[in-house]
Amino acid sequence: MARARSARREQIEKLALYPIDWLEERSGLVGGLKYFLLRKVPRDTNWFHTLGSATLTAFLVQAVTGVFLAMFYKPDPDKAYESIQHITNDVTLGWLVRGMHRWGASVFIILMFFHMARVFLFGAYKYPRELNWIIGVLLLALGMFEGFTGYLLPWDNTAYWATVVGININGTAPFLGPFIAQILTGGAEIGSETISRFYALHMLALPGAMFALIGLHLYLVIRLGVSSPPWSAEAAGAERAEPEPTGRAGLVSPGPRGAVGRPDA
Amino acid sequence: MEPRNGDKPHLPPPSLWPVGFAIGIACTLVGLVVSFPIGFGIGVAITVVFGFLWVRDVTRDYATPPPAPEHHPEPAAEPAPAIPASHGEAALPEPTPEELSTMPRSKFLEGATLGLGAVIGGAVTLPAAGLMILPAFVGQEQDEVDVGPLGNFAEGEWTIVTFLIDPEIGEVSRRTAYVRYNGLLEGKPSFTAVSNRCVHLGCPVQPSGLVQDEKQKKEKGAKGEEIRVIPVEGLSAFGCPCHGGAYDTEGNRTAGPPVRALDRYTFSIRNGRLHLGKTYSVSEVESQGAQALIKRYRLAGPGQHVDGIEKVLYPIQPPGR
Fold first, then answer.
1. How many angstroms separate the CA atoms of B282 and B264, rounded?
2. Domain residue limits at A176
């Protein structure tokens, strides 16, 4: 075969591969990316398994549109509302980016719940994936907190009073409630401290924490493998080399499923 | 593209030409601003010359044919195997077991690194956390607000008074009180000053009565901010639009989710003008108007009980409030 290729073609291929080889030799990133993308998944995964990536995509949309909105938004009680109006009405395509961020927030939350429902109904939270469920719950809580802090930023009457009610609900929690409420408010009453504090949480602290947790979440997905659906005859995360166990399809799950390195499960 | 020297990385020898190249770039940029045609031209020339020299230096490996593999003469004799360090002549005597059992240097360094890291981390984190938390609790006392002469308040009538508790912040600090003048009590004017903050979850309660915007009076505050006094005719109750909390004219809860009576403002009268001060919480009010017996408590957040067993257990009041 090698003979059949022209020398010219070989030269071009070498030229194309050279930068990739250069990068791989110095960082191992190419191999890492291959390991990340080209891994084994159960044969009978289905569309429900894409909900996690869909949620990730929604989060990235929020992150990117949020960066652009932050270039125009002013977290100041006298200017916040005007700056939102400016983004919506004056800035080129501002209505679109703000709309993506505003509606995308709901999409993100809804997709998180769908993803969680899939994991729950498929039993994919069971051994050895319990830790990933816990990280997912933390991500859900942070996502809801993002929604709460972001809701104040338009600084209209809905935003203001919804946040008043939200913080006061916090204040009724036992023991730490009033402290948390007052820390959130940044004082005795909602005002300029509150909006800047919510803005900082919304665009710096929470997304940073979420990026870190998403990284951990994905690491565990790659390490443990994708779980097969409950009706699958194939054990999740098992190596494919072993012969398939027969006569199991359609039966009630015969034992622990999804255990790494347990092809007999 | 592939280096001639096999799989060894391409490591060109050290070269001084980049220095000249950098000077050339600097001359070009300076020349661009200071003396466009001449200085710029000189800079470009220096850059090109030294760039050429540098590239020639770096690519020498590719330009020259690979050197013929040198013939290494066979070593005359196999060298003696190296003596293992533990068997050689020791620079220091072998450590005794007692010496080994004491803290080794690596352990000490490890502990020192972790300890120093903790100290540095704490020194950075504590002030930062303090900045986030403490300002919410200290310096929250508010000044009294002058809301105008007593003549603005007719006896037995309700008014809506709105004012700024902190004119520095602006309109976001505008607060509302429902104020009724109850006439004289033991020779002193008596007022009922109810906060509009619903004690369910903090929405603004509304008056049930005829708000007479056309009779609105405006006063100037200490910093020139606007204080509005709006009479209300026939005020019979207060209601909250958010979740349906309802209160009577003394602020007692009559229906809905609130857990106590409406908060009230302390007030004082100086130079014939009404001043509203801090708010305090009220569990309930007996009787009415000037004769009202107010069960007063420290200010609590909306939704928090101030009487009964909860008063003892909860909420724990944050300091500085």
1. 7
2. 51-224
Between these two residues, A1 and B41, which has the higher pLDDT value?
B41
Count: domains in chain A: 1
Q: Is A188 left (phi over 0), alpha (psi -120 to 50) or beta?
A: alpha
The per-residue pLDDT for A256 is 43
Q: Measured between CB atoms, does B1 come within 8 Å of chain A?
A: yes
Report the alpha-carbon distance of residue A229 to residue A49 in Å, rounded: 9
Nearest CB to A164 within list B2, B202, B304: B202
Using left for φ > 0, alpha for ψ between -120 and 50, and beta otherwise, residue A115 falls in alpha
Chain A interface mutation, best of B141, B165, B171, B201, highest count of A Cβ atoms under 10 Å: B201
d(CA A118, CA A125): 10
Cis peptide before B315 (omega within 30 of 0): yes
Reported as a pLDDT band with limits 50, 70 and 90, residue B4 is low
Residue pairs spanning A and B at CB distance below 8 A: 83
**Which residues, at least 6 apart from A71, have a Cβ–Cβ distance to it below 8 Å?**
none
Interface check B136 vs A, CB under 8 A: yes
pLDDT at residue B20, rounded to an integer: 94
End-to-end CA distance of chain B: 74
Question: pLDDT tens across A169-228, in order?
Answer: 998 888 888 888 989 998 877 888 899 999 999 999 999 999 999 999 999 999 998 888
The CATH number assigned to the domain holding A191 equals 1.20.810.10
Residue with tokens 């708000």: B211
Q: For residue A95, tell me if it sits in a domain.
A: yes
pLDDT for position A249: 41
pLDDT tens-digit map of B104-127: 788 889 999 999 999 999 999 999
From chain A, pick out residues whose CB is under 8 angstroms from the CB of B133. 183
pTM tops 0.80: no
- Average of pLDDT values for A98-104? 97
Tokens 């066979």 correspond to B74
- Would you say residue A28 lies in a domain? no
Task: Please report residues of A whose CB lies closer than 8 A to that of B244.
Answer: none
Q: Is residue A18 part of a domain?
A: no
Write down the domain spans for chain B.
17-62, 145-313
Domain spanning B145-313, CATH architecture: 3-layer Sandwich (2.102)
pLDDT digits 0-9 by tens, A176-185? 888 889 899 9
Which of B10, B137, B145, B172 is the mutation pick for testing A, counting most A CBs within 10 A?
A: B172
Of A168, A187, A190, which is closest to B303 when you measure between CB atoms? A168
| Nearest-Cα residue of chain B relative to residue A201 | B132
A117-149: pLDDT as tens digits = 999 999 999 988 999 999 999 999 999 999 999
Closest to A171 (Cα-Cα) out of B51, B321, B222:
B321
Is A191–B2 a contact, with Cβ atoms under 8 angstroms apart? no
> Does residue A44 belong to any structural domain of this protein?
no
ipTM of predicted complex: 0.71
The per-residue pLDDT for range B127-166, each reduced to its tens digit, is 999 998 888 888 777 788 888 888 889 999 999 999 988 8
Q: Do A183 and B132 touch (CB under 8 A)?
A: yes
Chain A positions touching chain B (beta carbons under 8 Å):
14-15, 18, 77-78, 161, 164-165, 167-169, 171-172, 174-175, 177-179, 181-183, 185-193
Cβ–Cβ gap A182/B137 under 8 Å: yes
